[in-house]
Structures are given as C-alpha cells and as structure tokens.
Batch of 2 targets.
Target 1
Amino acid sequence: MKRRRSAAKTTFVVLLTAFIAFGLAMFPIRGHRHAQGAPPAGSDKGAARGPDKPAAGPQKAPKPGPSASSSASPSAPAPADQAKDDAEDLKTLPVEGGLPVGVQVAVFYLEVTSLDDAKGEFVATTDLRMRWKDLRQRFDESEEPHGYKEYRFSKADKKLATMWTPRVDVTNRVDAPSFNVQRLRISPDGEIELTTRTTAKYKIAINASRFPFDRQHLMLDLIVRENGTDEVELETHHDDVEWSRPAQGMTIDGWKPGIVDLDHSEVLGWNGDRYGRLQAALDVDRDPMGALAPVFIPLVASLLIPLLAVWMNKTNEEGFEIEAFELANVVIGGLFSVIALSFAIYSAYGVIAGGDNTVTRLFALNYVSLACALGIVVLFFRFNMPRKLFGPYVHEELFRFVLWALPLLSSFTSVAFILAARA
Amino acid sequence: MTYFMHELTDVMVEASEASSFKLMRSVLTDVLSDNEEAALVRAELISSLPAVRKAFAKRDREGLLAECKDMFAEQKEKYGMDEGQFHTPPGVSFLRLHNPQKFGDDQSKNRPMLVDVIKNKAHKHGIVLAPTGVFVTAIVPMEDMDDKLNGAFEMGLDFAPVLDEMKKAYGMETAVFIDEKALREIATELKGDVLSDKNRVGKYMRYYSTHTELMTALVKDTDVDVTDVATYDRLANGSTWGVELVPLYDFNNHQIGVFALAKDFSEVVGMEGRAKVWQALACIFSIVLLAGAILVVIRGVLLRPVASLSARMAALAAGDPSQPADDPSTYCQELQGLAESYETLRKGKLP
C-alpha cells in the first residue's frame, strides 16, 4: 500500500512540475506578441473596431498583459489600426446629413438594341445616375480645379471600395451585364454622383391586351438592399426627371419610344421592414401597321369563309339550290384554315397567344361565325327546319335576313374589337 | 337604352374626373398650407431664441450670423428652407442668412407683407414673389429683450422640393407659372434660366415644372390665362392627362400666377372609350335582331302569304282555278279563314 501511494504521489508531482514549466515557458511569448502591437488572442476584432465600436461580448475583451498597457491598449490603437478604423468608418452609412439618406436616381436610355415581346426581354444600354451626400467625403474646393474629383472605370471601382455606396439592385436584369463601367464624381460639399453605364438584358412583363395598339414599359426595377426606408430612400427631383429620357433620335424596330417614367414604391421585408423601390420605365408604343399585314388581313379575310358558305346558296320552291354537304365542306375547310392561321400567328407573335386581346377575340369571332354558318347549313340547308316549323314564307324571309345580318354583325364586331383596343 | 347607357357612362366618367381634380386641388392646398406652417414654426422658433433676440436687438450682424449660420445651413440642406432674413423697421434688410454679404436695402416698397407684419405686430404667411423668386414664406415680428418690436424675421421655402414631394407621393405632375411682368419687376435676383423664351407660356413664365417636356405639351399659351379653376383633358405622349389650372394667389389674394396640376387619366378615359364601343355594338346587335324579327314576322307571316293569296285570287277571278292554296297550317290564324274561303271558291270553279 505504501509503495503504491508513493508512485501516485510521484506521478502527481511530475505532472504538476511539467504543467508549471510549460506555463512559465509560454507566458513570455504571449507577452512579447502583445507588446509588438498584435491583439491578444481572442480579442482581435475588438481591437480592430476602435474605441467607439467595442467587441461583441466580454469573452472577447483584451486580456491585459504585463506590457500591453504600454503600447497596445484598446483605448489608444496604433496608427495603422486607426487608419483602418477610419477607412472602415467611411464605408458605413453616412448619417451626418440625417436619416434617411436620400439617393436621387435617374436613368438615361442610351440605346435599346432589341425588344423581344414574345420572350418579354429587351437589351439596352443605360446610364444609371445615383446622387447622394456623404459629408465625410468633403474636401477643400481649391484642391480640384474642375470643382470635383472624378474617378473613371477601374479607378472608380477602387474608390468605391473605400466608401459607402447605396446597394441598389436591378432586380429584373437577366444574367450579368455584357458591359459595365462607372464614373464617380465627388463634389467639395460631399455630394457623390455615381453614373453606371450598363449593357444588359432585362426581363419585363408584356401586357398585350391592347395589341396592336399596346404600350410596353422597358423597365429597370431598382430596389435598395440591406438598408430600409428609415436609412436609405430613393428620390427623384426635377433634374433627375429631366435627365431621365431616351437618347435623341433613338429608334427601336417596330416600336416608337416615348418618355421615361419614374415610379416610387416600397418592398416589404422581414418584421415590417420596408425597402425603397424605383421603377424607371421607358414607354414604347408598338407600330400598329407592322401587325396589319401579317395578322389582321388574314384574320379578317378568314371571316369571309363562313359568310361565303351562306351567300353561295339560294332558295327555291323545294328549299335550297346547293346541297348542304357541299357547303358544309366549305365551313369545315374554313375551320381548318382558321386553326392553321392561329398556329401561324401565335408562333410568330407568342405574346398574344395567351390572354384576352384583339387577336384572340378575332379568332373567337371566326370560330363563332363558322359555328353559325355550320348551324345554318345543317338547320336550313339540310333539314329545312324553318320551312317545316313556320312554312315557306318565314323560311325565305329568315334566310334573307341571315344573308345580310350575319356579315353585318360580324363586321361590326370585328371593328368593335379593334376600336376597344385602340380606346 | 343605349343612349341612356352612353349618357350614364359620360356622367360616371365626369364624376370620376371631377373627384380626381378635387383631390388634386386638395392635395395642393394641403401641401402648401403645411409648408406655410412649417416656415412659420421655424420663423417663430428662431425669432424667439434669446441669443438671436439679443444679437438682433444690439444690431450685431456678425453675432447674429454666427448664431444662425449653421442652423440655417442645416435647415436649407435638410428641409429646403431657402430664405432667412432679418429686417429692421420699416423693412430694411438687416441680414440675409442665405446671402450675408447683401444687406441694407429697403424692401418696404415692394414687400407689403413685410410692412404689414412690422406695422401690425402680427405674423403672416403665404406665397410671395420676392427678389430671389417665389417662396412659401412666413414673417414674424421680432422683439427685443423688453418685448418691444424691433423688426421682423422671415423664412422662405422654395417650391421645387414641395412639388417634387407631391409628385412622389401622389403621382401628380405640376408646374408653376408666374406672371412675367411681376417676375421681371420684383424677382431681380432670380438665378437660373427661368426668364428665357423657352419658358414663356402666354403672359406667364414657367417658373418650375416637375416634368418640363410633358407640361409643355399639356399647358399651352391659350390654356394658362385663367382667373378661376379650369380643367381639361389633353393627349400627350399617347396618354390622356387630366389637367387642372389653379390660380396662384400671393398672401394678399392677388393673382401672381397659375399652378398646373396633371394626372394620367388614360385608364379612366380608356375604360370610357371601351364602354362606349361595347354599348354601340350592343345597340347595333339590338337594331339588327329587332329589324330581323320585324321583317321575318311581318313579311313572312303577313305580307308574303297575303300577296300569295292575292295572286291566286286574281288568277281565280281571271278563270284559272288551277292554283290551290298552301297548307292552312302555314298561314297565321287570321289568314286561315281567307285561305279556306279561297279554296272553297276555287273548288266551285273546278270542272
């Protein structure tokens, strides 16, 4: 028993000695690192943020060492740290001018390369101008002969990386822009003007209910990310409205460009947060003449087929001169031609394939006219129903009425569809 | 029926437009009123600050500027307060916070509002045409430390931010037109290119517009000369805009210009147009179907059978009994007796 207790005691003493020796050996190393300005382990973040931005929790507070207070105390950071702090501060929201920070937005449409209404996409080169005030960027007017500091392309990117910029996303942009350059101007009073020229493809919703008199909106949907409306607000002033326009002489094949509309709204976030949104849209009106030949002439011509089936026949004492099946063939032929026409038009103008618009209405009118013609062929020509029910005189008068009423109503309905779209 | 539906549609659209115009006018009135109040509150607050009163009482221009400079810069930057001016009786400019270098000019001759305030010791607010432009202004009397009147202080707010905010909040395009003669006479320190030919609209100058291109198309020379509220619809850029012209009065109820308010009425006008098209189509359908029914009934049931019987009767009278009457069931009840009588006569003539 005695020997076993002695061995345990020896082991304990050896372990304790080793622990103390390790502690003594390590202690000066930690003190040395701290003395050279490096933050103490576990407190690097707290030291980097500077005195006005303390560490998140007490567990990360710097541990004072023997030499720490002389050169690297948290209340007096080293010059390098101070510079880093200042740089970091410039990237925070500029609150000196009050909140929310007003970011003036304007969009100039330099060129619209293509507009694919079937896919609901357009490719455009735009200049997006954002202006805001950051008093931390003020400088003495005499420093710059031009009256402002200007940075272009990569220099602008570098400068922007060192300062706060509003994070505004264009949410309807498809893929990455094929061209993207920036120009940054800083005025002596701290006004920042960031202009971004971008060539990109954008997705838009096409409303073809008034085809071919429709107006589409080539929209850039701008939404502020990260900062709610209490921090950043998108604004448009008079000069932004004046600046927002299409380039002089802009042409878009099959479309006529109008004015740029700037519409403000908000996007809901989590917990009742709201984010600023601005939709800049270039209004473009379709050239209706472009759709006249390929769409409306065949559509109106196909309306004549059912009418022909009715007009071809003539009454006589026994009923009608032409056999019903011959005229039924005309109607069935007309049905197939309308189906073929609908395939042709819908494949060329995918945008009008779905929904309610002039073309779908005219197709509906075609089908209704064909159904009416088929009904006349069957009831009048084949079974002589009116003659059987009301006698020969009513039968004749009814047929005469159908001969002029059907084309008249068909024509007026077509015209009404077109006028309703034009209204 | 179609006519009444058409009239009803017109009445509904007119009522809707009238309601929109009324709302536009109310918005303008409220916004101007709010801004006048904002200017007044600021003027009252600044004029009551002891340090300001003291410096003004001592006629210490430097001290007064030092006291107010930063405050005014902030007000201008954040809230669009463009003018701040201290006056000594009877209306001499003592200190312009927006232009400290200029002072000493007597404004009592062309600033009746200022004279009124100093004379009556009561604040006033309203729209004024001042040397630097048109402002929503409030003027308050200044008192020394013994509460004796010793001048006035005014704060003026530019129109531009007010109208821009209105556009953002309500989607209304606006323009302000000011009488050119008055503008040239009074606004002698006006900056920018307001007084250029491109801004001339009749006897007015377009002082400010939220969308110059659009408002140029919407308000022409012949429209703008109004003395009462006027409304009309006009097509611009493919859209129908409802335009309302509201006379702009200064604090003294003297018309100095016109406000033009415009809102896109395309939706309402489009709906009206579509409703009328469908009504007209329904009318045509009704006429055609009614005409068809009348023709078929009158001609098919009455006239044609009577004509047929008449022809047969004539043949019978001429001695030809070979044409029998049609099946009696094909005639209407009233003609069936006649057909039967014809048939009896015809059979009697048969050999």
Target 2
Amino acid sequence: MKDRNHLSNVGLSHEVQIIKNGILDIPMLQLLQADGKPHDGAVLPSLDQETVQKIYDTMQYIRVLDERMIAAQRQGRISFYLACTGEEASTIGSAAALKPQDMIMSQYREQGALAYRGYSTEQFMNQMFSNELEPNKGRQMPIHYGAKELNFMTISSPLGTQIPQASGYAYGQKMAGEEAITICYFGEGAASEGDFHAGLNMAAVLNCPVVFFCRNNGYAISTPAEEQFAGDGIASRGLGYGVKTIRVDGNDVMAVYAATEQARKIALEENCPVLIEAMTYRLAAHSTSDDPTGYRSKDEEEKWRAKDPILRLEAWMEAKGWLDAEANKQYVEKTRQEVLQELKRVEQVPICVVDEIVEDVYDTPPWHLRKQLKDLKEHIAKYPEAYPKTSGRL
Amino acid sequence: MVKMNLLQAINDALISMMTQDERVMVFGEDVGHFGGVFRATSNLQEKFGKARCFNTPLTEQGIIGFANGLASQGSIPVAEIQFGDYIFPAFDQIVNETSKFRYRSGGQFSCGTLTIRTPYGGGIAGGHYHSQSPEAFFAHIPGMKIVIPRNPFQAKGLLLASIKDDNPVLFMEPKRLYRASVGEVPEEDYELPLGKAEVTAKGSDITLLAWGAQMEIIEKAAEMAALDGISCELIDLRSILPWDAETVCESVMKTGRLLINHEAPLTGGFASEVAATVQENCFLHLESPIARVCGLDTPYPLSHEKEYMPDHLKTYEAIKRTVNF
C-alpha cells in the first residue's frame, strides 16, 4: 500500500488569512465586440463559411420556431412551450463545436443544439403535439425532446439530474474506447442542486470526458442570480472540484465555439471534465406559464436586447462579406411557412393507442400492468365518449 | 457445491458477471481496494482493475446518477449503497430517473442494465440509521424491480438474474444474514426467477409470508405452531416488485388464512399491499382477518431493538389468534 499525505500540496501561512471571493478573478472570454468587430488580438476559431452559415441559420430557425410555438400555445394548440431567446449563441455555438458522436444531455432550453444536430420541424411538432409519431410516444410535456439517432438524451424535468448522469455516460464512453465525449447543459439555478456538486466531483475524481456547460442566464424562473448564489458565479465552483474551467460570453457565438472546441479537446485527450460558464441572459420568459414583468424591468431587458447574439454574428458576417440579407429574408420566411404548415398537419396526427400506457415501464409489461390495461380498456369501451382520443382504437 | 455465507455468494456472483462481460462495473463507497465495509466486493479491484471496480466520493445521489448515465450508455453498472438507510439522497435519481428512463423516452434509452445493491434490516444493534427496511418506498415506483434473497443460494441466483435482467433492480441484502447464513452454493452460474415467490414449506392451516431475514423468524414460529398441531405453509416472496400474487393467493385459497411478517413499520408497509390484493382475490376463501406482524410505527430503536422486532414469539401469537379467530 502506498503512503499518502493529503497535506503534501498545502502551503503554509503564518498569519491569519481569510480567503475571500474576488482573489481569483475569472475573466470572461469575448472575441467579438457588441458591434461584431473582433477584439484586437482576438484569435477567432477557424470556421468556414458553410459552418458559419449553418450556425446563423440555426439561430434564425430557433427564433422563428420559438416565436411561432409561443403563439401556438397562446392559441391553446399546445399546452406548454419554453423559448431560448437571447441564448441561441450559447447552445448553438457549443453544439457546433461538437462531433455528431458526442452525447448531448440537456436541461430543457437547448432546442438550438438539437436543431443544429438536424432535428426537423416535423420532429419538433410531433414532440410538441405528443402524438403517436413522436419517439417518446407522447409521454412527456412539450419540449422534452429526445432523439437517440442524434445522440440527444431524452430530457427530464427534474433539475440537475442529468449532471451526474453525464459523468457516468462519459465514463462509459471512455471505457468503451469511443472517440466521444458527453456535453451536459444546465442553468445557473440548477447548479444549486445537489446533483451538480455530486456530478462535478465524481467526474473530476473518476476522470470522465465530459463538458459541463452552464448557461448563466441571470434568472431561475423569477429568482435572480444574486439570490441564487453569493460566490463568483458557477465557474469558481469548478476550480473547487479540480475541474478545468472557462468563463465565456454566452452571447458571442465565436467565443462559445472556441471555448467548447477547446474544452472538448481537453476532455477527450486528457480524460477529464471541463466546466464552461456561459454568461448570457434569458430574454424569454421562463416558459409560457411565466410573466417576467412581475420581477424585472423592461429597461433591463432592453439593455440585453441590444446584445442580441444574432445581431452580433450578423454584423461580423456582414463585415466579412458573408451576409446575404436577401437570402436570409427568404430563409426566415420559408421557415415560418414550414413551421405553420407542419403545425397544422401534425395537429391532426392521433396520440398513441391506449395499449402504450403500459409499454416501456419494464422491458415487457408484467402481470399487474397487463391486468390494469385489460380493466382500463373494458372501462373505456363502456364510456367511449369520455375517452375520445383512444376509444375508437381499442 | 461449496459452502458459502451470504457475502461470499454475492462476491461470487459479482466475480462471475465481471468475468463474463467487461461492461460490468462495480462501484460505491469503499468498494474498491477495501472490498466494501461488509467485504461483498473483496478482491474485485485486484482481479478486474481500478477502472471496473472503484471507490466513489461519498455521495449517494451521485452514485446513482452516475450509474443511471452509465446504464443508459450501455454499460452494466452494479452500484452499491453502503446502507439502505443512506439511499435517500439518491431517492430522486431512482424515483424520477432510473425508473422512468425507458418510459419517458419511449424505449429509446433505458437504465435496464442497472442493479443497485444495498444492505438493509435490523438485528445488528445498528440503531436508527443502520437498520431500516425501506422496501415499501421503492415498491411505489413503477419501473423498478425489488429483489430480496433469504440465504446464500438464493443470493447468488437472484443477483445473477438481477444483473442480467433488462430492468433496473434494487437488490436488498439482509445484512444480519451476511455471515450468519451459510449454505451450499453451486460453483457454476444459475439464475433464479425474478417476480416469483417460493413456497418453502407446505402446510394446510395458515400461510406465512415473509422475505429476507424474516424467513428465519416465520420458520421458527411455524415450528412452535406445529407443536400445537397447526400446519403452516411458508412462502418467501423474494421479489417485492413485481410481486407474485398468484402464488400467494393460491396458497391462501388453500389454507384460508394469511400472516405477513416484515421488519419495516406496519403503516404503509408492503404487507398492506399484499393484504389488499389477497382480500380482493380470496375474499370468499378467507376464514379470518389477514394478520400483519411488523415493526412498530416508530423510528428503528437501538436499546429496544428486541422489543421492536416482529420476532418469532409475536409471530407465533399472531398465528394462534388467526387460526382461532
């Protein structure tokens, strides 16, 4: 057995020293200024025009989707929606820096990452209408996406549970010898959950190739960051767990891409976790059930609207000569039409037959579930009008 | 056949699974080089390396969260929670994640390969926090399987089946039997069925149902009752979820009487579920009310452990009351 000394790295002090917040300044990586001009000396990631266009288009796509789906919810066509307005650079810029084989474990505001992976409008609609074509079989609320073929883990509502899971998933990828990492998204509010601490600590101790991506968007529903934690954001915690950490301007898509690209490389090559804290702002309400006017001012929102990540990228593209305003206008219009069309069409698709209610609880339904289903179907047959969505297909 | 205690049988099953499939990984607090506080994971790290058998930080929610991720990736995690009493920080991961992974994703992802091992139960002077029997909490979670062995032979066969089963299993080990229970165990692999109870003794006057370490208690009570001319049929439930109502009901329809014994507190214990189902299915066959001999509705006490436990004497008295109703 080897001798250990847990004090071997501890330095000495001969006066009472109180270590305070702020001793360690964790700067925020910013490559593009608010007007889209690169900072002097900033090294931008080497992205070709096609990739930049894809990032830009996905940002536009998501903005259209968010806008249309909020409207659909207001019209009573879907029960719930959750927009990511203002955070598109964080989720799309980071997703763009990954490889398709990397697993994405998201919180719930990362539809941008999913769209970047290729999730189609039809798939978005199927999920939000909980219909029989949806791979999750309509069992969860709108926006709880999951797509195995895109390596996008099905979302669950409890906050932070995906964080230690991401550590475990990444450990499995490493053990299987895959050239892949796991990225785990969460908000600064979710980072108060015990699972955050458990997940980061385990990933650090067990050398898991996982990138923890915190979207610090200033609010957890109505609770502002200042009432969420007293320390220096989430980044400072990474250092406490021995996790390599980077803080980045979440509204600067170039900075987000550069940070994530580097984090992925470190995670994979060094078999270790990396924490990214993206500083951004949730311009959207928490969800369609929320009204931000009750807890923040219009002025505050306006200040952040001016930092719109899409405008910043647009300005950079324009300076580069990569912006085709006309084509962009057409793309946005086409997307609007597509969303409306799919929404209308998918609305008509039925939900799963009632037999699905007992499937996937176990690998096969045990006796008690089979019995409960049989009783249920007999009951529905007796009162078909009360259960119109399933009674016609018993 | 080899003589083994319950711990050795568990260790044997783990070695077998880790040998057969390199995706099997065993982890938890102190399970690495030390081999676990009860030594259930002895020598696994030496045999299979630190990457496949390792210590985790002291975080039950982290252990199960990590295990959920690992299982969903396709590995076969066998996670240890050092004491059943300390499983509650992981309750959210088990209730909201482990058990719902498959359902919520429409079968795209699942934690089916996960097995959670944890010692439970009293009788070892463990007080509040080293004695509880929390099976009923988990019996309320659709998607979980709960398995409890009563001896070394059962432990090996049920653990092998649990690890191979494509559903998450909570495998609860009666810790007071770890070294006390010794028996013949086949060297080769064998699986015992999950979700299937076992009639361990035939009888005609009353059915006694228990699981885990309480099987010894009802056996002892049945011996006492036999001297009074009462013939007891004994059933080891073995799986709490899904549970084998068919075997239990068949027996009750024959004997007309049922007594259920468990260490956990009476109120909301799994005996309540069994009693409700049995009265529903066997109403016209019942000759007396269903008896429950359980722990008191108190925290598990230390100095009054003997008084708290649903022992053979309390069981014997309840048998007589039920038969003479």
